[in-house]
Amino acid sequence: MKYIDEFRNRDLAQGILKRIHEISKRDVSIMEICGSHTHSISKYGIRDALPSTLRLISGPGCPVCVSSAGDLNRIIEFVRKRGDVIITTFGDMMRVPGSASSFQEEKARGSDIRVVYSPMDTLEIARANPGKEVIFYAVGFETTAPTVAASLLMAKQSGLKNLSFLCLHKLTPPAMRALLDGGEVELNGFLCPGHVTTVIGAGAYRFIADTYHSPCVVAGFEPLDVLQGLYMLVRQIEEGRSDIEIQYTRVVTWEGNRKAQEIMDQVFEINDAAWRGIGTIPASGLSIREEFADFDAERKFVMERGINEEPPGCSCGQIIKGVLRPYDCSLFSAVCTPGDPQGPCMVSSEGTCSAYYKYGGKRA
Fold first, then answer.
1. CB 187 within 8 A of CB 30
2. What is the three-state SS of 334-348?
3. Which branch of life, at top level (predicted)?
4. What pTM does this model have?
5. What domains are defined for the chain?
6. Over 90: is that where the pLDDT of 304 sits?
7. What is the DSSP track for 176-218?
8. What confidence tier does 2 reach under pLDDT thresholds 50, 70, 90?
């Protein structure tokens, strides 16, 4: 059965690619704004199999990568000054280089910085260390924000006094608007992220089609999902349509996950947020509401603003916007590698440079 499925999938992929080649007549640029899409496209050679008329651009789809250098430098400097705190975060954040250090380097110097697989794990750490302040460094898009909100609600219900959250969550649709308004890259359509849209619903992109006349297709992450999503986008463009379509119908709906949205709305409010490479985007981030101020690390502690500068020679900011490809960065592969990353795009499992290096190496 496994081999039958493999042959069936291969035949389906070839059929979709044939249709894309047949209908693609004009030069178009499509941006995928999900790191999982970028890795699937690179791993399965989709970019090379497409017609020359179709250009794929990798956008700000990596939550670790889009976190600003200033925010990272701020928490690193805070950790250096406060030896009595425990910092928890997701694994990818550990090796992201700041201006002078990283979480991994500070941990090696003695700071108590721990990797967790879920923000819920931080509650257990806080219970086990009542004499220490525990801070969860919360990054991510709409996919992870509901679990952080649920963790905060549980912490409040449990009466935990030594736990707080540094909330740096980002919202996807405002970033899409900023890229279109910026005009640095000509975009004809978006391959929208499946997991994010599971939460927010495909209707969240309606303004992209209505205001910017840019078609969007929400796709899954298997190679067949990506190919079908690209076919749906090319078909829209060639037919002169600007619609919001869902390829990932087995998971995504128009309305999204109402329960997750309610939890997010209960705990967070929308604010301006700093994005690496893009700058401050209005109404693109989440902050903790006043009624949960006791769990807001920014209110609980004094955290000075960090230096907002990229590592020397690093082009991650331009790569995140799609202005440059990893191959265009002078550090890529020669100096910046997964073993010695110079910027976040090479660190994260969802980073564009990581995908290009893993599946393309130095090939341009």
1. yes
2. CCEECCECCCHHHHC
3. Bacteria
4. 0.92
5. 11-33+42-59+185-246 (3.40.50.11750)
6. no
7. HHHHHHH-SS--SEEEE-HHHHHHH-GGGGHHHHHHH---EEE
8. very low
User: What are the residues facing 164 on neighbouring strands?
Assistant: 135
The answer to whether residue 211 scores a pLDDT higher than 60 is yes
Does the pLDDT of residue 6 top 60, yes or no? no
* Contact predicate 340/364, CB 8 Å: no
pLDDT higher than 70, residue 362:
no
The average confidence (pLDDT) of the chain is 93
Nearest of 206, 150, 143, 148 to residue 171 by alpha carbon: 143
Angstrom CA distances, 306 to 34, 77, 78, 297, stand at 27, 8, 9, 15
Q: How far apart are alpha carbons 316 and 46 in whole angstroms? A: 23
Q: How many CA atoms lie within 13 A of 314 on its CB side?
A: 26
Q: Do the Cβ atoms of 104 and 95 come closer than 8 Å?
A: yes
Angle of helix 223-239 versus helix 35-43 axis, rounded to 10: 100
- Report d(CA 38, CA 152) in Å as an integer: 32
Q: Using CA of residue 262, residue 264, residue 268, residue 272, what is the dihedral sign?
A: negative
Q: What angle do CA 286, 192, 182 make, to 5 degrees?
A: 70
For residue 84, what pLDDT is reported?
86
